[in-house]
Specification:
binds flavin mononucleotide, five-stranded parallel sheet, 8 helices, Rossmann fold, single chain, 216 residues
């Protein structure tokens, strides 16, 4: 029987990444696949996971988006994985973050794709979900696009179950469209609140960056 390993890459005990990982496992269980969910931060961190990865046929990484990609611990895990003989596993990613867009989270999936290409693994696609903090490890029914999201997640899980390619259209069909005007108002609001926090701590948000260099 093929062995599916689903890695929860969120450090939070009750997290949206874990919820999605458990939803994926429930689908695979229903379809009589051997699936296990593990947390990356249990049992000594990423190093302890490598043996489990070596025993898996399909690896799914479900994690939050931290500064436009997976958390640094995922990069550490990939670095350790690379040191061991990669045995041709199939790899899928699930990444979710606060921003409702997909492009801001996509580099997480791109990283998995590049890692797979470099190490003889087979990257078969991923799923991007926005508004993760609204779910906050609870239920996806809290989202305005919950119906489409549930439907498209089922398509994604079926692709994993069948070890099939899962393209961007699968998650793009679930994405909530934010009207441009609303996005502009929200961006303005967020930028102002960040500037205010800077000012309260004595920083000038408009000052020239100390990292700016003419050599680039
Ligand atoms: C350090 C840090 C960086 C983050 N960076 C982003 C980001 O770049 N884009 C985004 O949309 N959300 C970002 N978030 C929000 C998280 O991705 C979001 O809260 C996610 O739902 C948390 O997932 P979890 O419940 O699985 O831990 C960040 C959160 C933290 C703590």
């Amino acid at each position: 029987m093929r062995n599916y390993l689903i890695i929860n890459a969120s450090p939070r005990p009750k997290s949206t990444s874990l919820l999605l990982a458990n939803m994926c496992k429930a689908y695979l269980d229903e379809h009589e696949r051997q699936a296990t969910v593990v947390s990356m931060y249990q049992g000594g961190g990423p190093d302890g996971l490598i043996d489990a990865i070596m025993g898996a046929d399909v690896v799914v990484i479900s994690g939050p988006c931290y500064v436009n990609t997976y958390p640094a611990a995922v990069i550490k895990l990939l670095t350790e994985w690379e040191k061991r003989a990669c045995n041709g596993q199939i790899i899928y990613g699930m990444i979710q973050g606060g921003m409702p867009y997909s492009h801001t989270h996509k580099s997480g999936l791109n990283m998995l794709e590049l890692f797979a290409a470099k190490n003889g693994l087979s990257y078969k696609g991923g799923f991007i979900c926005g508004l993760g903090p609204l779910i906050n490890g609870g239920t996806i029914d809290k989202l305005p696009n919950s119906k489409a999201l549930r439907r498209q997640l089922t398509v994604f899980f079926a692709n994993i179950c069948n070890e099939a390619e899962s393209g961007a259209s699968v998650y793009e069909r679930a994405r909530m469209r934010v009207p441009a005007l609303l996005a502009r108002i929200l961006a303005n609001f967020m930028n102002r609140s960040i500037d205010k926090k800077y000012a309260a701590r004595g920083y000038d948000a408009c000052a020239e960056s100390p990292y700016k260099t003419d050599n680039i």
